[in-house]
Design brief:
- This protein has 143 residues and is α/β, with parallel strands linked by helices.
- The chain is 30% helix and 19% strand.
- It contains five helices and five strands, in the order βαβαβαβαβα.
- Strands 2-1-3-4-5 form a five-stranded parallel beta sheet, with helices on both faces.
Length: 143
């Protein structure tokens, strides 16, 4: 993934529920993010391939395609070098396995907590820390 110039990160948001859009926008309001929205999940992979985005945030319950299918489409359509980081917005924490199965880089459970979303965006995106996402954390040793 190539970062946008000037320390500003471009994020593509795939959601059709206004409360999800508002939650993401307010969570990223204090950072150097440019958030672009798309409501048609079928257009995401093409848009992510033709324009440079640092991350794609996908609502699990979007349109007729669904978040899992959108993430898979991005992974299949774009090379590793061109593929932006993908974050899947889940309805419940028990669905984290779905995000892993789809190949998402990270997941955040709704309602959105700003610090969790910024952490999920990961290192190298504007205004984030280098703390690992839940997918990157090491498992605890078995006792």
């Amino acid at each position: 993934m190539a970062l946008s110039s000037g320390g500003v990160s471009r994020v593509l948001l795939v959601a059709d529920a206004s409360w999800v859009v508002d939650g993401v926008r307010s969570s990223l309001a204090l950072g150097d993010w440019i958030v672009e929205e798309v409501s048609d999940p079928r257009a995401v992979a093409e848009k992510a391939g033709s324009e440079r985005f640092d991350a794609v945030i996908v609502d699990m319950q979007v349109g007729s395609m669904g978040g899992m299918a959108v993430v898979r489409d991005i992974r299949q359509s774009l090379s590793d070098e061109d593929r932006p980081r993908t974050i899947l917005l889940l309805d419940r924490s028990a669905d984290e396995f779905i995000a892993r199965r789809a190949g998402a880089d990270a997941s955040v459970t709704k309602p959105i907590v700003a610090s969790e979303l910024r952490k999920a965006l990961g290192p190298g995106t504007a205004g984030t820390t280098s703390a690992p996402t839940s997918r990157q954390r090491k498992s605890r040793p078995k006792s």
